[in-house]
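Question (not urgent): is this output format expected?
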Amino acid sequence: MSLLRIAMVQQKAVPNDQKTNLQLAVQYINKASRMGADMVLFPEMWSNGYAPPFDGAFDNPTDPAFEKERKEWLESAVTIESDYVTAVKDAAAKYKIGVCATFLSKKEDKFQNTAIIIDRSGNILLNYAKVHTCDFSLEKLLQHGSEFKVCEFEGVQIGVMICYDREFPESARMLMLKGAEIILVPNACDMNPLRINQLNTRAFENMVGVAMANYPGEGWGGSCAFSPVVFDENGNCLDNAIVKADDMLEDILIAEFDMDRIRAYREQETWGNAYRKPAAYSDLVSFEVKKPFIRNK
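Got this back:
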């Protein structure tokens, strides 16, 4: 594939209404297919719109006064074999488009923030649980993932990092080291210029394409895509932004990645894994946390 077209869904989900959000997902998968996209990317935890189980849950998710609401929220999690996931797989196959679907998931006794990549035939290529869960907030209720994953979609190596993952350079770096050429970022938070620039930086320093989809809303939105190609053949700086939405737009945006150009650039430029010195990086895998970074659990 020389051109990869990613459809980024910047639309509202209905808070904690899995049935309606599934219907919307199928509707947007159909629309993205008609727009000529190869894959559609949803914001983070689309199954419930990343909505809290009760007021104040983002600040105090374990509040004992809301045990019933908390239990019901977790019980809404879907398994990989669920009717919810099956319906999304069926939509991918029906409309002949890849899908990066997101949901609150359950696996055995674990509740996780999950993204899957589905091919045009409805097969799951990648099943990823968010590694950097927001343990200071609602995701304290969830189990973090333990591995970054990459899959091949029609000849393109694609990885996923979810929202808070993007704030750790290790996330994109691991995906690049595993072969990712494009990184998809389902998101659910305010996206100020600094966070947008994080995504641009991840694309630049790892020589990977990046596409992010976020929910619309005041100070949110900002769905965007960046090419890793930041210099032309003469060394002149390029504007590598492919698509940038404002915060309030409700739409599906198409980002087109020129894979031939990206691959040629990766073969000759100096970033990514070209000149790293891993022997000097041992502290990166240390489990010790020192002041000022010690936090109360």
